[in-house]
Amino acid sequence: MKTGRQHKILEIIRQEPVKTQQDLALALKNCGFEVTQATISRDIKELGLVKTQRGNNLFCYTLPGEYTLVHSVERFKRIFQDSVIGLDRSENLIVIKTHPGGAQGVASAIDQAGWNEIIGTVGGDDTILVVVKPKTAANIVLKRFMDLNGG
């Protein structure tokens, strides 16, 4: 049942824009699957779905890499400003806090930006860990993030 449901989730997100977990639950219900919000949340995590931008301010669930998230600096800046609520740094690590559900989209945008100093990101639900190398570049990267976030 779980495998069939998850295959149906992938089919749904490829066929139509799914903006929220509630939208996904309704689409699954229309296909004969009765699910709880907790089940949807687990499936999203297990499938590795992320919210990415499709058009003007429309963020939908996708598989990582299926849609190019960052097409321009302005779009990257807008994603950052819409989602990020806090930044902090320790040594070569930067922690970015987002609104709930925003971390994976921002982490994907950071990865796609291709900044040489960033060797990787880990995005949870509302927190992103950014690994910077060399350690001395962390302040520079933090400053860039602050500039993206409006100061």
Helix/strand/pairing class, anyone? alpha+beta
| Annotation field: number of helices | 6
Strand residue percentage: 15-25%
The secondary-structure element order is HHHEEHEEHEEH
Radius of gyration using CA atoms only: 17 Å
Instruction: Look at the structure and give the CATH class of the largest domain.
Output: Alpha Beta
Q: Which short descriptors sum up this protein?
A:
two-stranded antiparallel ribbon, 2 domains, 151 residues, 6 helices, four-stranded antiparallel β-sheet, 22% strand, alpha+beta
Describe this entry's structure for a reader:
The chain has 151 residues and is an alpha+beta fold. It has 2 domains: 46 residues, no CATH class; 76 residues, Gyrase A, domain 2 (2-Layer Sandwich). The strands form 2 sheets. It has a 4-stranded antiparallel beta sheet. A two-stranded antiparallel ribbon has the order 1-2. Helix 4 runs antiparallel to helix 5. The longest helix is centred in the N-terminal third of the chain and has 14 residues. The model has no long low-confidence stretch (mean pLDDT 87).
